[in-house]
Amino acid sequence: MKTLPLTVIALAAIASSCSRGNSEHLASVNPAYIDTTIAPGHDFYNRINKGWIEANPLTAEHARYGQFDVINDTCEARVRSLVEGLGSTDPQPGTVAHKVWTVYSLAMDTARRNTEGAKPILADLKKIEDTPREGMEDLFIWMHGNYASPFFGAGPMEDMANSTKYAMYVSGARLGMGDRDYYLLDDERNTAVRNAYKTLIATQMQNAGYSKEDADRITGNVMKIETAIARDTKTREESRDIVAMYNPCTIAQVKAEYPAVNWDRFFVETMGIQTPDTIIVTDPKTVATGSKLISTLTDREIKDYYLWDYVSQAASKLSDNFTQASFEFNKVMSGVQELRPLWKRSLGATEGALGEAIGQLYVEKYFPQSSKDYMLGLVENLRTALGKHIDNLDWMSDSTKTRAQEKLAAFTVKIGYPDKWKDYSSMEIDPSLSYYENMHNASMWHQRETYSKWGKPVDRTEWGMTPQTVNAYYNPLANEIVFPAAILQAPFFDPNASDAENYGGIGVVIGHEMTHGFDDQGRNFDANGNMTNWWTPEDLAKFEEKTKGLIAQFDEVEVLPGLKANGTYTLGENIADQGGLRVAMTAFLDSQEKKGVDINSPEANIDGFSPAQVFYMNYANLWATNIRPEEIRSLTTGDVHSLGINRVNVTLRNIAPFFEAFGITESDPMFRPESERVIIW
């Protein structure tokens, strides 16, 4: 399925507790990692994390390594044990266990894959090459029907205006390098990435059996086409404008605006559905470019573009020379120095094919009901706290507050795992076939599953992540917050940790996801997940004025010499980080008051730290990370999240209780005068 914008707003991070009074001890925060030579008001991130950073140096396989990766390592080891354990059970053909074991085994069998080389895709490449001029439309349809998406992407997704049903979306073509700047800017960094990409294309095409001369020609044609598409692709900042993505068109309009595509054939033959009456075009300019290219390029240029589209999606399932070429490109993009171990790559591919099947095994062994019950209770504490914050906002009108409270009350909460698991019984996995053929069959199964949704009511029980994913997300189209089982580990959540640590960990993450429902994107959707403007013009003006200040705070941060952070692109996540901190602290204070704990009393201290200090210490602890300069550049270009150090130091500079907890005054570098602070939630 072609990826379409805005299915979920993800966090990339995420605990209440049982009260033990003054018997609580630090569990998630390691005091040995605190660098007491750095004052809290000078650099809070490095005060808390310098010891961890020194104790966890980057290894060659990592472009970055942080607390998320520590948890992910634990999850990977667990999943590896579960998957490899299936082999000893002699699973019967046709069972899900046999499918999981077969995919993993084939992925691990590099000897077989190296013997096969490019053979698994040669027939398809020949089909592309041998297509005559009169068959180019057939070839275009065939490409889209085989899990490729040249010139544009299409597929059903929840209708943003009526999220109970599916709408058909058409979006611009995928760019091989991801971001338009890599194609259009001529500075040293973008030129280096662009040259590495050209090398990648040429190398992979030679790996697929083409001569150097042909590979060079293909590279030139691919760059010509992708650069043309990049020129008309939305900028990173423009891509955050959700309303601008919703452009309903009649099928007659689509046929008139984008005439190079036989739309009736396209929908019938690639998706097995009748042509929709209405289509949502997310980026009309880019789709128009794709249509123009189809009608103006030569057959040779189009075929070369198709060849690369096919080879690039197949490369990770072929022989080691394909894998090595992709890695050489990744080295330039992220600075990583060593391939991830084969078992990790094989495990990731298996999870991509049969993720929920593995997730079911994971939760049965590693996610007790007590953790789910605990999280549900904590979410309600955070919901109550956010409700208080909404009531006390000075920039939101009473009428909008009423709608906001309705939306908050309507949040659906998903914890741990789906109530209904995917049925993989119809997925064809055959050990006699190559690894590529089996993975292609799995991809086609997922594509058919997506297309089969057309004409049916939206299934709100579906999950956008597997239970073993270390992450969480807010989905505005379902007005739901989702916390997979794997994120519920220290330092985010630990049943043995103090209340302060857990609220500063998973509590902040819950608040983060909740406030996504009201950030610059989430505010466009109502309690039912439908895109509608429920804010007054005055509220919106005040909100946007505040966000200008937050954008400026991040824009001024130099992440590398000559490279500034992008406050506009990261705005939604920055709002949610601040909102999560403020709301979680309110929920923490409420929880302690209910237990009769005075957090300002010396008796409430936890291993010598006040509960408020511990709360902020564990928040900072979540973002401890080692990272390569190349990865900093890559993330600043393509990630909607700020770097970990800025999620701590820039965000906390707006929060008065943080200053109070550590006695930070105007003489400290981290102090921000009250008149310059931005408080949204």
UniProtKB/TrEMBL annotation:
Keywords: Hydrolase, Metal-binding, Metalloprotease, Protease, Zinc. It comes from the Bacteria. GO terms for cellular component: plasma membrane. Residues 40-418 form the Peptidase M13 N-terminal domain. It holds the Pfam family Peptidase_M13_N. Residues 471-677 form the Peptidase M13 C-terminal domain. InterPro entries: MetalloPept_cat_dom_sf, Peptidase_M13, Peptidase_M13_C, Peptidase_M13_dom_2, Peptidase_M13_N. GO terms for molecular function: metal ion binding; metalloendopeptidase activity. One of its GO terms (biological process) is protein processing. Its cofactor is Zn(2+). Belongs to the peptidase M13 family. This is M13 family peptidase. It comes from Duncaniella freteri.
